[in-house]
Write a structure and sequence with these properties.
Elements (H helix, E strand, L loop, with lengths): L16 H12 L4 H16 L4 H10 L2 H8 L10 H12 L3 H19 L1 H10 L18
Helix pairs in contact: 1-2, 1-6, 2-4, 2-5, 2-6, 3-4, 3-7, 5-6
Length: about 140
């Protein structure tokens, strides 16, 4: 049977939204599931404002439906932010400190990285400005001249 390459990607995440929240809660040492969900919503909304193109579509297909909806509900910014500017923007929007926001961002994006898989994550990092690799739990990629 041949597959139609023009067909939209099927939504088949490897974990449910509840499982994703529990993973973020564990990774971030959050006291409640509600706090973990709040952090997931803030960070995924921010990522949705930064990510475009095929990588955005493919990542959404690998996230639980609720998480994909948060990501794709955002209109991408015309000027992408560096990793540090991304953290500062999230802190300003959420009212949290920079240190707390950096922790929250890492807690969510390391979970997103595991769902994305190494190949898609590498492509995502190539399309984002510098400074995101560490937020996803990876060493920063350096481009050879």
């Amino acid at each position: 049977m041949m597959s139609d390459l023009r067909a939209p990607l099927q939504h088949s995440p490897v974990m449910t939204f509840e499982q994703m929240l529990e993973k973020v809660r564990y990774e971030g040492v959050y006291p409640t599931r509600e706090r973990a969900e709040e952090v997931v919503r803030v960070v995924l909304s921010g990522l949705g404002r930064q990510l475009t193109g095929d990588e955005r579509v493919e990542l959404a297909a690998r996230l639980p439906f609720e998480a994909a909806s948060i990501l794709t509900a955002q209109i991408p910014d015309t000027q992408p932010l560096t990793g540090w500017a991304f953290v500062k923007d999230l802190a300003a929007r959420s009212g949290a400190t920079l240190a707390t926001t950096r922790w929250d961002t890492g807690s969510v994006l390391t979970t997103v990285a595991s769902l994305a898989g190494p190949d898609l994550l590498t492509r995502i990092l190539r399309h984002l400005p510098s400074g995101y690799a560490l937020l996803f739990g990876r060493a920063e990629l350096i481009q050879a001249a």
